[in-house]
Automatic annotation (TrEMBL):
Keyword match RNA-binding: no
UniProt cross-references to SUPFAM superfamilies, sorted A to Z: Molybdenum cofactor biosynthesis protein C, MoaC
MF terms (GO), sorted A to Z: cyclic pyranopterin monophosphate synthase activity; GTP 3',8'-cyclase activity
Keyword Lipid metabolism recorded: no
This protein's name: Cyclic pyranopterin monophosphate synthase MoaC
Native source organism of the sequence: Spirosoma profusum
Pathway assignment: Cofactor biosynthesis; molybdopterin biosynthesis
Gene3D superfamilies referenced in this protein's UniProt entry, alphabetically: Molybdopterin cofactor biosynthesis C (MoaC) domain
Assigned EC number: 4.6.1.17
Domain Molybdopterin cofactor biosynthesis C (MoaC): 15-150
Protein's GO biological process: Mo-molybdopterin cofactor biosynthetic process
Class of the enzyme per the UniProt entry, highest EC level: lyase
């Protein structure tokens, strides 16, 4: 029976002790879908939207990467991890922007939270940079798509 890993025997919040675990290759990919709508998508030129603040998707990639590297500052019980890689891609599908964040490290704990934070902050940056065009933007979903390393691998098909 699975149990919550961030509670100690007394039921209080606690960081998981990973000291005895062996370091292994860990990867995770998270996705966030941002519904921009046709009013914003009409400004798409090539593979980006240019605003007075700068190129939206390029800026979101930088913001998401910075956030993934600082996940332990944002999520209280996350371990500090040195990421070996963080790749964020943003594609469009109709009136949606699809943000994928792939992270990897060699470590004792997974990088799912880093991938989720990277994708989320990239999506929030898209919202911030596009809100002058329209506030009818919806950050629809953020989900873990896959992870490798640790106790078990995971892959979501959709």
């Amino acid at each position: 029976m699975p149990s919550f890993s961030h509670l100690n025997a007394d039921g209080n919040p606690s960081m998981v002790d990973v000291g005895a675990k062996a370091a292994t290759r860990r990867t995770a990919r998270a996705r966030t879908v941002v519904a921009l709508g046709p009013d914003i998508m009409q400004h798409l030129s090539g593979s980006d939207i240019n605003t007075k603040k700068g190129p939206v998707f390029q800026t979101a990639i930088i913001a998401g990467t910075m956030a993934a590297k600082r996940t332990d500052d944002l999520i209280p019980l996350c371990h500090s991890l040195g990421l070996d890689n963080c790749q964020i891609t943003i594609t469009t599908d109709g009136a949606d922007a699809i943000v994928d964040c792939l992270v990897s490290t060699e470590g004792k704990t997974g990088v799912e939270m880093e991938a989720l934070v990277g994708a989320s902050v990239a999506a929030l940056t898209i919202y911030d940079m596009c809100k002058a065009f329209s506030h009818d933007i919806v950050i629809k979903e953020t989900k873990l798509m896959e992870k490798t390393g640790g106790k078990r691998d995971f892959r979501r098909d959709v």
